[in-house]
Amino acid sequence: MSDYPKVEIREGLVSIIVPDLSKYIVGNRPEPAHAPVFYNPRMEVNRSLSIAIINGYVNYTGKSNIIICEPLSGTGVRAIRYAREINGVSKVISNDISERAYELIRMNIDRNGLSDIINVHKDDANNLLLRIAREGGCDVIDIDPFGSPQPFIENSLRAIRDQGLLCVTATDVGVLSGKYPIKCVRRYGALPQKFPYRFEVGIRILISTVARYALSMDYGIRPLMSFLDGHYYRVCMLVFKDRAYALETLRNIGYSYYRPSTLQRGFISGYPIPGVNRYRLSGPLWIGNLWDAEFLMNYFMKGTRDYFSSRAREVAGLIGEEALGPNIPYALTTEVGRDLGRELPINDVISIIRGLGYQAVRSHFHVKGFRTNADLLRIKEIIMGK
Ligand SMILES: C[S@@+](CC[C@H](N)C(=O)[O-])C[C@H]1O[C@@H](n2cnc3c(N)ncnc32)[C@H](O)[C@@H]1O
Predict the structure, then answer these.
(1) 237 in ligand 1 pocket by Cβ < 6 Å?
(2) How far apart are CA 266 and CA 255, in angstroms?
(3) Is the pLDDT of residue 64 over 90?
(4) Percentage of the chain with pLDDT > 90?
(5) Given this model, what pLDDT does residue 354 score?
(6) The pLDDT value given to residue 90
(7) Average pLDDT of the residues in 315-326
């Protein structure tokens, strides 16, 4: 066993050994990427919400004996939590290319007495996924890489079964949300824009990238849950290995427009060439729903647990509310209150809009973000007292 400082931690219902992050400080903060094996305690939110989503998925589809694959496992914390905390799991496949990670995963599995449920591999993730595809596939695939999931999407789609659940994390939020537009074009084949709702543009580009890989294979996708939490995006989607569903998916790819003069924003369908060019466009991107509201209300929420961190439960609540709002990009209070000369509390904006009979909900993408079907210029005029 490699020799480096380690500590025992508890997360969810498991206890695992991880590198002692207090020995890997950069600036004045622990830097998980500098440790011999990657463990980021902040990603508990991602892992806990994934447990709620996968448990919800099991109930939603009525599947039993599911096989879950995590090709980039790090310490194994996620795979181990899935084996312990998800109902109806028959097998979890855990994998990492790093020797040290592989050793640690094996040790953590033994400590938790889960060696008959979890199979461990030390392979390149793409090799593993291709092997799984040849051997009959699996029901859930969780791609949680450093940076972009792009290199693993295509083979995940090969390895997943029909109506399986594909979950991806992307930590390159800056690239997807317009900080490095050319890099986004290279990596995702889509142009982001620094629209006020650029964090929503980013997650929609991520979804449409998966959708376009799926389309090329005659598959379709449907997001069940999507969110941004600080430094990463997370999307969990159903994959349909069905040509008819691929056509449905194609209808959900298009562009987003934004007009600063009227505050108008929205979507234009028509991939690969949109019909209108009056606006600045961003895309191609996903223009369909980011959430399946029925899944969230009836399955995901029931899958959240008291022992999740308060942040995980908070994100779950925010998304549950936001999913009931209209599928129109979020707006910022600063857009409708720019000339007011003072900060406009978001709850005031929401009350004004609701008072006029329109929908308005907060958006988790931004502290000043809200989603409404009202005409924003009209709202701005009302707020300015015109
Ligand atoms: C962000 S960490 C995974 C964290 C883990 N999923 C969790 O929830 O704690 C990414 C992991 O991918 C592994 N990795 C990087 N490239 C890989 C590849 N091509 N195949 C398999 N593993 C790889 C790294 O060694 C690292 O442990």
Answers:
(1) no
(2) 8
(3) yes
(4) 92
(5) 97
(6) 97
(7) 95
Range list for CATH 3.40.50.150 in the chain: 38-293
Within 10 angstroms of residue 344's Cβ, the number of other Cβ atoms is: 18
| CATH 3.30.56.70 holds for 330-386 | yes
Tokens coding 29: 């903060």
Whether the per-residue pLDDT at 254 is higher than 90: the answer is yes
pLDDT at 1 over 80: no
Task: Provide the token pair at 384.
Answer: 């300015």
Q: Which atom of ligand 1 is nearest to the CA of 72?
A: 12
Neighbours of 5 (CB within 10 A): 12
Residue 347 pLDDT exceeds 80: yes
Taking residue 27's Cβ as centre, other Cβ atoms within 10 Å add up to 6
Ligand 1 probe mutation, 46, 54, 73, most atoms within 8 A of CB: 73
**How far apart are the CA of 62 and the centre of ligand 1, in A?**
30
Whether omega before 284 lies within 30 degrees of 0, making that bond cis, reads: yes
Whether the CB of 125 sits within 6 Å of ligand 1: yes
Q: Which fold has domain 38-293?
A: Rossmann fold (3.40.50)
